[in-house]
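Technical note accompanying the year-one report. For the benefit of new consortium partners, we illustrate the data format agreed upon in the data management plan: each record pairs a sequence with a structure-token string. No post-processing was applied to the example shown here.
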Amino acid sequence: MIRVAIVGITGYTGEELLKILSKHPNVRITGLYGRSSSKTRDLKDIYPHFANLNLKVEGLDINKIKSGCDAVFLALPHSLSFEIVPKLLDAGVKVIDLSADFRINDADVYEKWYKVSHTAKDCINKAVYGLPELNEPLIKQAKLVANPGCYPTTVILGCAPAIKNNLADMSAIIVDAKSGISGAGRKASLEYFANEHPNFRAYKIAGAHRHIPEIEQELGKLYGEKVTLTFTPHIIPVERGMLSTIYVKLKKDIKTPEIIEIYKNFYKDKPFVKVFDENVMPGIKDVENTNLCEISLKVDERTNTLIIISVIDNLTKGSGGQAVQNMNIMFGLPETEALQFN
């Protein structure tokens, strides 16, 4: 059995991880922790629907985690992993970090976008970007996995086959992305539903969103050169779900059926990516509570533009589910273990 702990249990991601891991046949949950050294509480007092687990939520105790865990999920706000990760790695504990702290390969870029000094730079080169469909061989050997952001998951999976097959004009990629409010965190979600629901609005436009350098970094790796794109996120009046519409200028004339066949071949052995036939359009309800990324494709022949629809549940494939998928790979388990039920 893999002994696991979740640090940051009180957020949406912590709850999603617990939902999945509590039903994982190869996992024993040995610790649930808050963000700080707060007092111990019964899990049922935070999440009544998990009362059957009979677990406690403790204040953060690194020594206890090091001695009692094989793997740790860090579901913490950005910059809070800096102090924790080096200590866990030194103790031989595998780490799946769900913040952005180790996703960006260049510390200077991280500091520019996140407005905080990176104090665990020695760990950056140890981290593997945890997108299993592209990086599975590296994840298998990893001690530290940087779990991707939700928006980047939709965009990178949506674009990868077109880029790898040299179909995309990389000078003109536009992403129009829409997320359920849970993507902003539990506090923001509660405020939204109390004061703003059912509003629908754009936010952090014109290159202001922190996921941009992550997306550009990973697309640049696929392309082999620096990539710049236009990214506009929106909040939609639902709790969970994410849909990105991606516009990619094509380098040559190509029909929709041929593009679809390229995408299906690219993801043919990837159980959590589903590429649809022509004119089938996925919606966020189709992927709710699953670890799937569903992709639809259409070429606008008037403008020679590929329109990609990429849809996930931001709390599963965009967060907790993908983290468990990474853990499965790290420990030599089938990547679908415990994720079929979602």
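Partners are asked to follow this layout when depositing records. The chain has a mean pLDDT of 92.
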